C-alpha cells in the first residue's frame, strides 16, 4: 500500500515538473516573440522615418531645381528680347544704309512714282522781261525739295539721276545739272508713292500754285514704273 502511494507521488511530481517546464518554456517563447515583434515594429518605423526624410530631401531638391529652371528660363527670355532688339537695330541700320546708298546713287532703284514737266511760258507783250517766262533753277529746286519731303527715294532731271552733292545752275534759258546742260522743257521724275507725291505737289498754295503764279507751265503725271540706274563715278 505504501509502495503504491510513493509511486503516485513520484508520478505526480514528475507530471508537475514537466508541466512547469512546459509553462516556463511557453512563457519564455511568448516573451521572446513579443520582443521580436516590438523590435520589428521599431525597425519598420525607423525605415519609414528614413524614407520620409529622403522624400522631403528629394522634394526640397526638386523645388531648388525648379527655381533654377525658372531663373534660366527668365535669362533665356531676356536674351531673346536682347537679341530681338539687336536684330531690330541691325535691320534699321541695314535699312538706313540702303537709303544712304540710294541717296548717293550707288544702287539701282525702280518702282512707281511721278513725273513733273516744267516748261517756259508763252511770251506776254505786256511784260517785256523774258526772265519772267522761263524756268530757273529755283523753280526746279522747289519741285525737287517737295518730292524729297514727300518721301521720294530717288530723283532725276531729264533722265539724269541726282546724288547727294548734285548742283543745278541756270544760264539764261538753259540749266546745268552736275555739268550737263539741258534746255526746256525739264522733266523731273521721282520714285515713291504716286498718291503721296502728287498730293504733296498739288497742295493748295503749294509748289504747283507757286510755279503757275510765276508763269511756269506745270504738268504732273503718275508713273507705274520708273528705273534709275546707279551713278557711275568718274573717278
What is the overall pLDDT average?
79
Number of domains: 2
| Strand count | 8
Percent range for β-strand residues: 15-25%
| CATH fold category name of the largest domain | Alpha-Beta Plaits
Q: Helix and strand layout, with pairings?
A:
Elements: H1 2-104, E1 109-120, H2 137-149, E2 154-157, E3 160-161, E4 168-171, E5 174-177, E6 180-183, E7 186-191, H3 194-201, H4 207-213, E8 216-228
Antiparallel strand pairs: 1-7, 1-8, 2-3, 2-7, 4-5, 5-6
Concise structural overview:
This is DUF881 domain-containing protein. This protein has 235 residues and is an alpha+beta fold.
Polypeptide structure, described:
- The protein has 235 residues and is of the alpha+beta class.
- Helix content is 56%, strand content 21%.
- It is built from four helices and eight strands.
- It has helices spanning 2-104, 137-149, 194-201, 207-213, and strands at residues 109-120, 154-157, 160-161, 168-171, 174-177, 180-183, 186-191, 216-228.
- It is rod-shaped and about 170 Å long.
- The model has no long low-confidence stretch (mean pLDDT 79).
What keywords describe this structure?
Alpha-Beta Plaits; DUF881 domain-containing protein; coiled coil; alpha+beta; 8 strands; DUF881; 56% helix; five-stranded antiparallel β-sheet; 2 domains; 4 helices; 21% strand; 235 residues
Amino acid at each position: 500500500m505504501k509502495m503504491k502511494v510513493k509511486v503516485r507521488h513520484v508520478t505526480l511530481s514528475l507530471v508537475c515538473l514537466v508541466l512547469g517546464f512546459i509553462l516556463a518554456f511557453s512563457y519564455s517563447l511568448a516573451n521572446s516573440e513579443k520582443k521580436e515583434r516590438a523590435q520589428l515594429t521599431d525597425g519598420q518605423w525607423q525605415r519609414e522615418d528614413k524614407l520620409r526624410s529622403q522624400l522631403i530631401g528629394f522634394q526640397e531638391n526638386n523645388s531648388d531645381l525648379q527655381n533654377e529652371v525658372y531663373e534660366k528660363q527668365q535669362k533665356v527670355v531676356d536674351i531673346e528680347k536682347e537679341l530681338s532688339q539687336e536684330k531690330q537695330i541691325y535691320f534699321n541700320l541695314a535699312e538706313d544704309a540702303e537709303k544712304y546708298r540710294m541717296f548717293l546713287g550707288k544702287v539701282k532703284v525702280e518702282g512707281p512714282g511721278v513725273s513733273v514737266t516744267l516748261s517756259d511760258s508763252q511770251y506776254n507783250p505786256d511784260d517785256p522781261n523774258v526772265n519772267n517766262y522761263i524756268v530757273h533753277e529755283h523753280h526746279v529746286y522747289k519741285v525737287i525739295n517737295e518730292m524729297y519731303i514727300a518721301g521720294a527715294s530717288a530723283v532725276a532731271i531729264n533722265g539724269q539721276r541726282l546724288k547727294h552733292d548734285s548742283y543745278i545752275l541756270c544760264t539764261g534759258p538753259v540749266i546745268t545739272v552736275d555739268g550737263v546742260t539741258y534746255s526746256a522743257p525739264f522733266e523731273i521724275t521721282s520714285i515713291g508713292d504716286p498718291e503721296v507725291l502728287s498730293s504733296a505737289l498739288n497742295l493748295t498754295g503749294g509748289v504747283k500754285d507757286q510755279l503757275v503764279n510765276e508763269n511756269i507751265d506745270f504738268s504732273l503725271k503718275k508713273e507705274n514704273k520708273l528705273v534709275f540706274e546707279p551713278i557711275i563715278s568718274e573717278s
